[in-house]
């Protein structure tokens, strides 16, 4: 492989192997490559984990640390999945790392999935770069996710538990929770912003069984001022306007604050990190005139948080592309309580197709044509594009490239 495109084609070719839960394959790879674990924080959750990573990364950088981060999915470019100090991996590093991983994988007793190979690439890249800290975002679940080969992270985080990926993680919130709690490690503190008492009780019992201390971060939030921006007061500190907007972001921020305090970072670094954090596709304002926001609310709980924020907007239109394995009916009904909702599809294996949407009574549009027309002649004060994060990525790139007047 000589270019990033070669790497992307190689990884995409592995998608046919699907999702294969389990850690044996990735452990074999890391052992074969002689990659050692670095100081790490591991973040799981149905919603909010990407935002928590963004807050924690900004804080770490203000603390003066070199910090690696592994996230999924990406919004602007593939390389965002593996970053050092907020900068995506460079093409020459990506190609060099991918070739080494491919050559090693060819000797593996079992074929690795696309996500496993990508995770190994991140481990190898960070092993070469030796950052002071690596922040790992779980891909799916936790217990059997390929990021869960960490043996002794500095801390673990669970941001939220909601209904998502039930076919893989379980049908009930308790079953889903146990999968996400599976990143817990003996004697490693776990921080959470859960609100459901049965799930908190379950987490505490897990902590007792594994000798891991459990820390509820929600008491850190003493006040929230919602609006076009979100201003939060944390545990006696002066109010801070978050870099990420939304009531729920106060609690993602609290997860990061609690871990940063645990690690002994300066209050000034923590507060500045809260202000400076950026995470594309999370209530992201990409145009003021007309007002256009992107938000990757891709499940019912994410939509509920988005709806609460949209109550503060005026005269809202929503364009949504909801994947076929999500609870479309509940998500659309929730959005319709605050906005006019149009639905669409896009080129993605799990996308809900036009015929299915029409049969379900959706107000269907072809998104590129519709979006270009809306930008030329806005029908409402605010447009919000939501649904799949993969769709958000396509729309973001389309607007950046093809509608220059934005």
Rounded to an integer, what's the Rg over CA atoms? 21 Å
The number of E-state strands comes to 16
* Helix content bin: 40-55%
The major sheet is characterized as: 8 strands, mixed
| Poorly predicted tracts of residues | none
On the 0 to 100 scale, the average pLDDT is: 92
Shape estimate = globular
Q: Which strand order spans the largest sheet, edge to edge or round the barrel? A: 4-3-2-5-1-6-7-8
- Helix count from the secondary structure assignment: 15
Distance between the termini: 37 Å
Beta-strand share of residues: 15-25%
Content-based structural category: alpha/beta
Can you put this structure into words, describing what you see?
This protein is of the alpha/beta class and 406 residues long. Helices cover 41% and strands 16% of the residues. The protein has 15 helices and 16 strands. The strands form three sheets. The protein has an eight-stranded mixed beta sheet with strand order 4-3-2-5-1-6-7-8, sandwiched between helices. Helix 12 links the parallel strand 14 and strand 15. Helix 2 runs parallel beside helix 5. It is globular. The two termini are 37 Å apart. The model has no long low-confidence stretch (mean pLDDT 92).
């Amino acid at each position: 492989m000589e270019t990033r495109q070669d790497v992307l084609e190689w990884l995409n070719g592995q998608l046919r192997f699907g999702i294969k839960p389990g850690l044996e394959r990735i452990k074999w790879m890391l052992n074969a490559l002689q990659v050692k674990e670095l100081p790490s924080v591991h973040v799981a959750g149905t919603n909010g984990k990407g935002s928590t990573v963004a807050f924690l990364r900004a804080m770490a950088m203000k603390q003066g640390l070199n910090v690696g981060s592994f996230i999924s999915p990406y919004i602007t470019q593939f390389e965002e999945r593996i970053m050092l100090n907020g900068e995506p991996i460079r093409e020459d590093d990506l190609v060099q790392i991918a070739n080494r991983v491919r050559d090693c994988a060819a000797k593996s007793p079992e074929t690795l999935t696309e996500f496993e190979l990508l995770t190994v690439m991140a481990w190898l890249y960070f092993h070469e770069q030796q950052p002071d800290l690596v922040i790992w975002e779980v891909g799916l679940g936790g217990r059997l996710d390929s990021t869960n080969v960490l043996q002794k992270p500095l801390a673990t985080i669970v941001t939220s538990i909601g209904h998502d990926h039930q076919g893989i993680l379980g049908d009930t919130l308790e079953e889903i929770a146990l999968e996400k709690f599976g990143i817990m490690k003996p004697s490693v503190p776990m921080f959470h912003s859960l609100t459901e008492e049965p799930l908190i009780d379950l987490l505490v019992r897990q902590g007792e069984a594994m000798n891991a201390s459990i820390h509820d971060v929600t008491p850190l939030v003493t006040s929230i001022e919602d609006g076009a921006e979100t201003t939060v007061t944390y545990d006696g500190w002066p109010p801070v306007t978050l870099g990420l907007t939304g009531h729920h972001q106060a609690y993602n921020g609290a997860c990061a604050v609690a871990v940063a305090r645990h690690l002994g970072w300066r209050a000034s670094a923590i507060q500045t990190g809260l202000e400076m954090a950026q995470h594309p596709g999370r209530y992201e304002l990409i145009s003021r005139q007309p007002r256009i926001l992107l938000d990757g609310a891709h499940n019912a709980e994410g939509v509920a948080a988005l709806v609460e924020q949209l109550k503060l907007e005026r005269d809202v239109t929503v364009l949504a592309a909801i994947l076929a394995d999500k609870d479309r009916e509940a998500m659309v009904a929730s959005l319709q309580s605050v906005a006019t909702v149009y639905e669409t599809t896009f080129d993605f294996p799990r996308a809900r197709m036009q015929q299915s949407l029409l049969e379900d009574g959706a107000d269907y549009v072809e998104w590129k044509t519709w979006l270009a027309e809306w930008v030329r002649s806005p029908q409402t004060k605010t447009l919000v594009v939501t649904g799949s994060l993969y769709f958000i990525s396509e729309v973001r790139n389309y607007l950046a490239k093809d509608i220059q007047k934005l």
